[in-house]
Design goal:
homodimer; 9 helices; 79% helix; mainly alpha
Chain lengths: 187, 187
């Protein structure tokens, strides 16, 4: 039960980060949105808001990592498609009001540990996507750069789509990145 | 002199947005960082903080537009290089502590006019970069998608570099995007 309350607060914080950014993800907002009792915040996160945000970043990182782990042995273009699909789902399910919590924290981080954690998770995604692309048919010497490009383009594409309130920029970016991975597979 | 004070406040707000995000860009912080007298804020921005942020977004949009206007008639790969260079300069001059004020506003916007303005400026950049790429040798039917990809990848690459506190992710993204534009020119 206690673990359930904690998880609920972490999930709520992750959604607030993805939708409204770091400063809007306050203890007060998390309490309001999760319905958790006030005392539970300090019980589960004695380190304060940063501890909650670190847990929310970890949860977001794990969700993507779980999807990536399920793609072992798949062709590189399917790996790219699934990664692109992760972010497409975030946009469409939220009616273009949500994005990446890691990005939101990076551009508003007011503490080193938060920036460090976002950097670690981005690096872990890049390494894992790079390995999957290489195993799936992209030449090894191109796999890290293509993984970095895929992640950066998806992150930026999500922001362009939110600002445009249209999926068009995201789909344009997705098409270019997918063609790039396919071209590297046959090159 | 009054125009000078106003411009100084707009520039200060743009820097705060690029470094610390929307919520950290308060009137109090702008006063502190610009040294402007308190009354001048309400004099120049009777619409409050949103009016100041809209002006800062406009200034950021205009800076990029001025650079793009200077690239008319240039080859597409040079256009891409210069756009990539704009963001490289933001990262290196700030020791990787600053990024794009439009992106910062998009992911933390708490008002429709701010999101609208960010969307308009991103759309204007995309249109202008697309025209320049097409005029510079990229097939017209690919130019909008490549412009969108370039802008999204640079935006995302800036975030990855800030989180990593290293230029490596940005340079990886830059290399891939430049190769993509060159390949479209010869394709």
């Amino acid at each position: 039960m206690a673990a359930g309350v904690r998880q609920q607060m972490v999930d709520t914080a992750a959604v607030l980060l993805a939708k409204h950014g770091l400063q809007a993800t306050s203890f007060a907002e998390v309490l309001k949105a999760s319905g958790a009792p006030r005392g539970s915040l300090y019980h589960h996160f004695p380190g304060g808001k940063d501890e909650l945000v670190l847990a929310a970043l970890g949860a977001a990182g794990d969700r993507a990592a779980t999807v990536l782990d399920g793609l072992a042995g798949q062709p590189a273009d399917l790996v790219a498609e699934r990664f692109i699909g992760l972010w497409r789902a975030v946009l469409t399910r939220s009616d273009l009001t949500a994005g990446c919590s890691l990005l939101a924290v990076t551009v508003a981080a007011d503490s080193e540990p938060l920036l460090d954690r976002a950097g670690e998770i981005f690096a872990a995604w890049t390494e894992r996507v790079g390995e999957l692309l290489a195993a799936g048919g992209v030449p090894a010497e191109q796999s890290t750069a293509l993984a970095t490009s895929l992640i950066a383009a998806c992150e930026g594409g999500v922001v362009l789509a939110r600002a445009a309130r249209s999926m068009a920029p995201y789909e344009a970016v997705a098409g270019v990145q997918l063609a790039l991975v396919r071209s590297a597979m046959s090159g």
